[in-house]
Design a protein that fits this description.
Helix 11 links the parallel strand 8 and strand 9. The protein is globular. The relative contact order is 0.14. The model has no long low-confidence stretch (mean pLDDT 91). The longest helix is centred in the last third of the chain and has 28 residues. It has 442 residues and is of the alpha/beta class. It has an eight-stranded mixed sheet, sandwiched between helices. It has a four-stranded antiparallel sheet with strand order 12-13-16-15, covered by helices on one side. A two-stranded antiparallel sheet has the order 1-2.
Length: 442
């Protein structure tokens, strides 16, 4: 291959290569080897094959040492920048040799690897695996998500994971330039998606029982917002669970304000063993709540399957956006999700995952209390992937640990110094303990 490529470089653009027979003789290889080499060079744009005429050296691309000038794009794009820095930090790989306490997903050792592989293999064997999927998603998968939300399968729209569902919902419900109410703190990916849709996040404070309904009503009245984004169960980053009485109040306040509630139930499968509250959507009959969940956290980052559940005209708008954006979610991935969720191995995985997350959470909380007692963990969560740590003052974490900086989780000025520490992203509990030691400065 290298010898033939060198021979092509020596030719002038458009000059014909020797015949295949001559190349076989010249290089002492088989005809199959020559055919493969020419096919690869053609794929790389080095040669051009013309049936009946032969193979020719491709035109050379112009070379210049001068950097291209793309400055004109700044004028064409205008001021609608998309800020993704805080989100990229959560999903990118940690620095080399750093212990990952900032990740947004469980470590690969916590994924159901064998079950995922088996599900994908079974899905691929289905005769209609590569057929077009319905815009709203495959019926069996919609039925599974409907049971999670206490809804009808007709109200379910399959999405490309949770982040894609967030972006779609913000664009469908909120008008560019309008406010969207969010818990403070909240998930940075939601802030980024809202701003990318042209919305203005407005903070609503939380306490130990979650979002404060009294301040929520005030925020609706002051801003005229028509959308609230919230995470009532195992809130990211605090781990809070909205109390039972407030769950009803939040929906009632939104309904009285003529607004939607976008319920992000990302942690539905990330409980640590205690009972998990019903989704807000399960008790909503008037279409106030638009429900969102996905499989990426409990299964794998690459199982980009989620769902939006909505009732009434908002569902039709979401469905229309799905059709306009990309027609439908890839059928093989939907089929694999059905295979995974319908197999007993899935329930076994969730039990194993629950135990592992509970143990890791306790390990990290204990290590922090022992090694850095001046840092405060107000709540040891009963679900989710993170601890929310209040600091006595500004801290610069050492290079050997990747953490989530608290400022990224606030839509406005942060009320103090915080870190979000993941107990799921590290390879094992021992790494969690070592990560705390590094944070302590040992």
């Amino acid at each position: 291959m290298r010898a033939l490529a060198a021979e092509v470089v020596a030719l002038s653009p458009g000059e014909r290569l020797p015949s295949s027979r001559e190349l076989v003789r010249r290089h002492g290889v088989s005809p199959v080897t020559v055919t493969r080499a020419i096919a690869r060079l053609a794929a790389e744009g080095v040669v051009v094959t013309r049936p009946g005429s032969g193979t020719f050296a491709a035109p050379r691309r112009a070379r210049t040492d001068e950097a291209p000038d793309t400055s004109w794009q700044s004028v064409a794009l205008g001021d609608r920048s998309v800020e993704a820095g805080s989100v990229a930090g959560l999903h990118g790989p940690p620095p080399e040799d750093a212990i990952p306490l900032a990740g947004g997903y469980p470590h690969s050792s916590l994924w159901p690897g064998k079950a995922l592989g088996a599900a994908l293999a079974r899905a691929a064997r289905r005769p209609d695996a590569w057929h077009r999927a319905p815009t709203a998603g495959l019926a069996p998968l919609r039925a599974i998500f409907a049971r999670m939300a206490g809804a009808s399968p007709d109200d379910v729209l399959i999405t490309g994971g949770g982040q894609g569902a967030l972006a779609m919902a913000f664009r469908a419900i909120g008008a560019p330039g309008s406010p969207v109410l969010v818990e403070s703190p909240t998930y940075p990916g939601a802030l980024a998606a809202a701003r990318a849709a042209g919305l203005r996040p407005v903070p609503v404070p939380m306490d130990a029982d979650g979002l404060r309904p009294d301040l929520l009503a005030e925020a609706f009245a002051m801003t005229g917002a028509r959308l609230l984004y919230c995470q009532p169960t195992f809130h990211n980053p605090t781990g809070a669970v909205l109390s039972a009485d407030r769950r009803e109040q939040v929906v009632a306040v939104a309904r009285a304000s003529g607004a939607f509630v976008l319920e992000d139930d990302f942690a539905r499968h990330l409980g640590h063993g205690s009972p998990i509250p019903r989704p807000l959507a399960a008790d909503d009959r008037d279409g106030t709540v638009v429900y969102l969940t996905s499989l990426t956290k409990p299964a794998s980052p690459s199982l980009r399957i989620g769902a939006l559940v909505a009732r009434g005209p908002v569902f039709e708008r979401l469905r229309a956006m799905r059709l306009v954006d990309d027609f439908f979610i890839a059928r093989p991935l939907q089929e694999a999700a059905i295979e995974l969720l319908s197999n007993p191995a899935w329930e076994r995985h969730l039990r194993t995952l629950s135990t592992a997350l509970r143990d890791r959470c306790a390990t990290l909380a204990t290590a922090l209390d022992r090694e850095i007692p001046e840092w405060t963990v107000d709540r040891v969560p009963r679900g989710g992937l993170h601890l929310w740590v209040r600091l006595p003052g500004p801290v610069t974490p050492p290079a050997g640990v990747a953490v989530g900086h608290g400022r990224d989780y606030f839509p406005a000025e942060p009320p103090g110094e915080y870190l979000r520490l993941s107990f799921a992203a590290a390879a094992d509990p021992g790494e969690l303990v070592e990560g705390v030691r590094r944070l302590q400065g040992r």
